Task: inverse folding
């Protein structure tokens, strides 16, 4: 197994540090830490990704609502011309390691709706607003399912 694969398959983290290795960012079945992906994303979509990634481990519906806010803010800024595709050239320069990590997270996500949201957020770094609008709808559905699951 090469270094990337062994790194991606390091599971069962037993030591967490609230500053350097918080549990809510390090418990995904893929073994990928949230920051390994979000540090390569823009502010709004990176935050939305983070809140979806950790929702089940931290603040539930509140995190999903925060993700919706960040996606809406991204759409607003793009529509007002503050962010354009020319401002996002780094999106096309991701290394193989980052792409493998996001693929690992999506493939190993047990909740298919959450996987679709994470994929949409990642793809939205390079896409147009209609994908972000789809992402908001997916987030709202995820929030509704989260509420149903939490209350039972």
Result:
């Amino acid at each position: 197994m090469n270094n990337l694969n062994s790194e991606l398959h390091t599971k069962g983290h037993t030591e967490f540090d609230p500053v350097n290795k918080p549990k809510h960012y390090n418990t995904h079945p893929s073994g990928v830490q949230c920051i390994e992906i979000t540090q390569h994303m823009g502010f709004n979509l990176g935050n939305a990704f983070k809140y979806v990634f950790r929702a089940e481990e931290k603040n539930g519906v509140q995190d999903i609502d925060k993700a919706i806010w960040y996606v809406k803010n991204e759409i607003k800024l793009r529509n007002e011309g503050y962010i354009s595709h020319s401002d996002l050239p780094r999106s096309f320069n991701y290394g193989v390691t980052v792409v493998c990590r996001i693929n690992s997270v999506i493939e190993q996500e047990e909740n298919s709706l959450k996987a679709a949201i994470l994929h949409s957020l990642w793809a939205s770094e390079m896409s147009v607003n209609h994908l972000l609008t789809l992402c908001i709808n997916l987030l709202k559905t995820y929030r509704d399912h989260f509420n149903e699951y939490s209350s039972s």
Summary: The chain has one domain: 3-151. The chain is about 60% helix and 0% strand.
